[in-house]
Amino acid sequence: MMRQLTALTRRELLRIARNPQAIGASLLLPVLYLILFGQGFNLPYPSYYIAGAPDYFSYFSAGMAGFVAVTATLFLGANVIFDRLFGVLKRTSATPATPASIFGSRLLAGSVQPIGLAFLVLGLAALLGHVGLAGLSVTQSVSPLGALEIVAAIVILSLMFASLFLAIGFSLQQPQTYFAVVNAINLPVLLTSAALYPVGRLPDWLKTIASYNPVTLAVEVIRQNLFSGSVGYYTYSPGIYLLGLAGWAVGMFLFAVVLAARALAPAR
Amino acid sequence: MQSEAIHVEGLSKTFNHTLKAVDRVSFDVHPGEAFGFLGPNGAGKTTTVSMLTALLAPTAGKAIVDGVDVFADPVHIKKRIGLVFQESTADSDLTGRENLELAASLFDVPRRETAQRVDSLLQRMEIGDAADRLARTYSGGMRRRLELAVGIIHAPRVLFLDEPTLGLDPQGRAGFWKYVQELRKDHGMTVFVTTHYLDEADTICDRLAIIDHGHIVATGSPSELKDRLGGDVITLRPAHGDGRLEPVLRAVPGVVSVAAQDGTYRVKCPKGEELVPALVEACYHAGIGLAGVSLKRPSLDEVFLEFTGREYREDEGLTATDRAVRVGQVQQAFGRARR
After folding, report:
1. What is the pLDDT of residues A28-60, one digit of tens each?
2. Which CATH number fits domain B229-300: 3.40.50.10810, 3.30.70.100, 3.40.47.10, 3.10.50.40?
3. Which of A40, A127, B53, B326 has the most crowded Cβ, counting Cβ within 10 A?
4. Which residue in the set B85, B93, B105 is minimally distant from A7, CB to CB?
5. Domain ranges of chain B
6. What was the ipTM of the complex prediction?
7. What long-range pairs does B144-148 form, CB within 8 A, spacing at least 24?
8. Which one of A244-258, B32-46, B166-180, B305-319 scores highest in mean pLDDT?
9. Cβ partners under 8 Å of residue A54, min gap 6
């Protein structure tokens, strides 16, 4: 089982590395948001309005670092569908590889990429400040524990969305349907999260939804560790947010496991 | 029964409770044998292969492959069999070598043997020079050979080939079968093959089963099946349209029937090559000169016609994509002709 998992994960990583266009496409949306939306909306909001961040762009950059976990895992389900259409999944199913190793390898490999991309987004956001644009300002030194919390938030969020998109990929047969479903998820997830605007200023009904949105849980962990002004703003510590995020990830993982096992079982 | 490489008993598959794709099929394949499964498109060939390779659950029946109950232990059976699909399933984003290394890991080939086995197969399949190129750059023939290498990386005792030469040119087909025959010779591998090329089935297979509408309608060696049609046909053309020929031919021992057609006489007999001298001699003694003699063994096309009631067309085995490509080629040729 471990040998199968390692071999299939290596295969997935090789495919990702050999397809730099897909990596670029994953980055495109967050980067466009940073440059177009982030710069345009960087107005002088009061600190309490933007959860203790020094400016809106810094607040927004942390949101985009979380959102990249969504855009970078989008392709995982599409890969499942294309592998089914091109026979690669059938070939793998004809070997003694277990459904757990087939699913697990895609989950592991697919969750690696967003970690690098999230830090790339944060780095790019900081760099913009040095070329005459609004840039990310980190207003406190990040402790080793804080860095670990940021990485954990991105990893868990990536695992959660990787599970979701894999579940959809294993359930659907046609790429057109997949992209329609994913587009229907992508934007609402972004708009009902704290990635773009502070939860505290939202209408009550939207505030409730946004508070439980996994993207919100992850970006609040990032913000608490980057901005000194956030002290006292948040009701819960990063650990509690991470716990909520882990709950989401476990739930989505179980959901995906059931659907993948059904899809990879001998056809009836 | 236990010593058979494949033992199938009452195997059935019904889709959506209504469509009977395979209906109570039973047959045996002997160890080391090349067994061909022939049938038109939709006859149940691929459904049968899918069930025998544990990719599809049956509705009823049992199948023992290499001594293992396919449906009771699907993981175990996958370790013991090789499978080459009709479509290309090699990973285009990996090199030929990486495809083989991946398969070796999935089949749990001992690590110390993997590199040597991969190199040996790459050389044997004549893709050694392209081993480190991405599979997407391979020609159709190279991809087929890579598929075969992937299918046998774990040295299976039974190899399933599901229309493996579909879409290959004659040279590619001949090359592919050369490797399969070598494998059989060197490793005593049992081969179960579905193909829509009847000439291939005739040449490669020791025995054949013809399946139609989910039922096996005939089983036997290619020559046995042909013999069931009444044997060979010898055509004699008298030099001067001599009408005395028919009774002379009928009198020769071994002749089953004689039919006159367009100035020639068609003689049916079990072993044509042995009867030709006797027929020529009978004509000589009767003073009848011959302008020509030809011997024709019945082809599998005629066998197919006999058992299924319709002629076998190569198009039967083509996928919708292949047909579309052919239509495109015809349209292109038509366009060129008009210009």
Report:
1. 888 888 888 888 888 887 777 788 888 889 999
2. 3.30.70.100
3. B53
4. B105
5. 6-220, 229-300
6. 0.82
7. B144/B88, B144/B168, B144/B172, B144/B176, B145/B175, B145/B176, B145/B179, B146/B90, B146/B96, B146/B99, B146/B100, B147/B84, B147/B85, B147/B88, B147/B89, B147/B90, B148/B84, B148/B176, B148/B179, B148/B180
8. A244-258
9. A47, A137, A139, A227, A229
Interface of A with B in 12-71 (CB under 8 A): 14-15, 18-19
Contact between chains at A96 and B78 (C-beta distance less than 8 A): yes
Average pLDDT value for chain B: 84
Q: Is B69 on the interface with A (CB under 8 A)?
A: no
Architecture of the domain defined by B6-220: 3-Layer(aba) Sandwich (3.40)
Distance from CA of B225 to the nearest CA of A (A): 33
Residue B39 CB neighbour total at 10 angstroms: 26
Q: Which amino acid is at B270?
A: P
- For residue A93, the chain B residues in CB contact (below 8 A) are 55
Question: Is residue B188 over pLDDT 90?
Answer: no
Domains B6-220 and B229-300 fall in the same CATH topology:
no
Q: What is the pLDDT of residues B96-136, one digit of tens each?
A: 999 999 999 999 999 999 999 999 889 888 888 899 999 99
Task: Compute the nearest-CA separation of A121 from chain B (Å).
Answer: 27
Q: What are phi and psi of B192, to 5 degrees?
A: -110, 115
Are the Cβ atoms of B55 and A267 closer than 8 angstroms? yes
| Residue in A closest to B73 by C-alpha | A96
Contact B55 A93 (CB under 8 A): yes
- Judged by DSSP in three states, B336 sits in helix
What's the CA gap between B66 and B52, in Å, rounded?
A: 11
At residue B319, does pLDDT exceed 50? no
Chain B contact probe: residue of A11, A14, A92 with most B CBs at under 10 A: A11
Interface size between A and B, measured as CB pairs under 8 A: 73
The first and second tokens of residue B146, run together, are 């890579």
Q: Which residue has the higher pLDDT, B170 or A32?
A: A32
Report how far Cα B149 is from the mean position of its chain's Cα atoms.
19
Contacts of A80 in chain B (CB under 8 A): none
pLDDT value, residue B328: 44
